[in-house]
Amino acid sequence: MPENAYTDGLAPHPRGREVVYAFEKIAAISFGGLALYLAATEPLGWLPFVLGALAAFVMLFVNWPYGAFLELLIAASIPRWIIPIHSWKAKPEHFVVAAVGLVALFRIIARKQEWKSLGKVEFLLLALLAMNFITSIMVSPNRVSSLRWVLLLTLAVSPFFLLLQIIRTEEQLDKLMVLWLWVGAFGALFGIFCFLSHLAFRTEFGVTIVDFLGFMQEVHGSLWEPNIFGSYCTCFAVMFLFYFLDGAPKNPWHLAGFFLTTVGGLLSLARQGWVCLISVGTLVLLYNLRRRTIRLKHLAPILASVLITLVVGVMTMADLSERIAGLTGEAAEDPTVVRRVGMLALAMQDIVQHPVVGLGTGSLGLLYIADSDSTYEGVDKAWLGSLFVGIMHDTGLIGIGIFIWFTVELGRRAWRVLAAPVRAPARTAVGALSAGVLVFLIAYQFTDASTFALTWVQFGLMGVALRLAEVRSGPNLASI
């Protein structure tokens, strides 16, 4: 496949390489000087941030685009750590997304990198962002707060567009998918380490103690909170499962990754993650069984991984049985379920009164206060667990219509690619990424994490994989 198979507009220029190298040298010297100045003049508490920023800057230019992409993946997987700047609680992903975007933009302007035209899904996502800006300016109960949240949302969504410009070939996509899977496996492994440390030494690093649930211990690892960690692990679990079943020969690394992420999802005590693992995992299995014959010796280790996870979970987690009971008839008595239903009721009242354009980004938290027994670590603003209801509350029927159109368009294209007879790395990536996206869409109806970059890294990779798979399949898609 030619490298510029789906590019247009600005093409690379021979002098672009020299200009970019000069920029990189100047930027490196300037940043190094700033780092030394901060280290010499600021308290030692800043030193880890300075060293981390210096390492991140160096990684940004190492073996482009892989260094930058790896940095983006890591930053998207550690939203738990914040850098307070006045009233802004900045996350590593905010800085990394901005830095990668600036470098990519400079490379395009210097004509060292080609500009790729935007497609329908990109314009739909831009329209949704524009709708957030419009409603926040026009109808928000607090314009400044809503616009700040829209800016943070824009930073979170930016990887969707960055990945389109960065990834050009199937070879690059394949390498970046390997990096993404490794990051997910290490994220789950870190959560497991936090749980073992809590079990052995009663540490609370990476573990949330939920006092209003009888001091229940839930693992959040490097993610914002346990439910998001559960969704994160489940997303990678179904991707590992797809790669393992689709691969020929079977890669034991994919099986090991499935086991690690399944354990991580269990330790989170996130019930929506368990439901997604069962439902989406079953779809992955049925899809691969329909397309090819899978031997029992390949299914046996998958089943064994799940059973071992359950046995170990029951033996080591005192709260596991209670959370499992929450999936049955006792769900109505769960305070977290009651809280979510209460927030949904408040949101629906607002939606009925403002159905067309909503009330602006983050408006529910501006209008209501959360119950004192349902907050996490001092977060007292009301929040919605449902992604779809949240979009309707913020941007009305127009916004939810755009988002549904966006997801349906991605799903339609994925269906066509997965139904095509062509077997290629990009098609496998489409299958795995589609399974992960489906996990997010289901799980985010209970705990929404669409304001974090990890969500849009997943969506962005899916969009790029679809483009590359469609180019390879070509006429084969026309008959589907």
Explain how this protein is built.
This protein is mainly α and 480 residues long. Helix content is 68%, strand content 3%. The strands form two sheets. Strands 1-2 form a two-stranded antiparallel ribbon. The chain has a two-stranded antiparallel sheet with strand order 3-4. A hairpin with a 5-residue loop joins strand 3 and strand 4 (216-219). Helix 15 runs parallel beside helix 17. The chain starts with 15 loop residues before the first helix and ends in a 7-residue tail after the last helix.
Describe the structure concisely:
By secondary structure, the chain is mainly α. 68% of the residues lie in helices and 3% in strands. It contains 17 helices and four strands.
Helix and strand layout, with pairings?
Layout: H1 16-41, H2 47-61, H3 66-76, E1 83-85, E2 88-90, H4 92-109, H5 120-138, H6 143-166, H7 170-201, E3 207-210, E4 216-219, H8 226-246, H9 252-267, H10 271-291, H11 296-316, H12 320-325, H13 335-353, H14 363-367, H15 387-419, H16 425-443, H17 453-473
Antiparallel strand pairs: 1-2, 3-4
What would the principal axes of the Cα set say about the shape? Answer: globular
The parts where pLDDT drops under 50 for at least 5 residues are: 1-9, 372-379
The largest sheet is:
2 strands, antiparallel
Strand count? 4
Average residue pLDDT: 83
Largest beta sheet: strand ordering: 1-2
Gap between N and C termini, in Å? 22 Å
Query: What gyration radius follows from the Cα positions, in whole Å?
Result: 23 Å
**Number of contiguous helices:** 17
Q: How much β-strand is present in the residues?
A: under 5%
Can you give the helix content as a percent range? 55-70%
- Structural class designation: mainly alpha
Order of helices and strands: HHHEEHHHHEEHHHHHHHHHH
For this structure, the quaternary state is: single chain
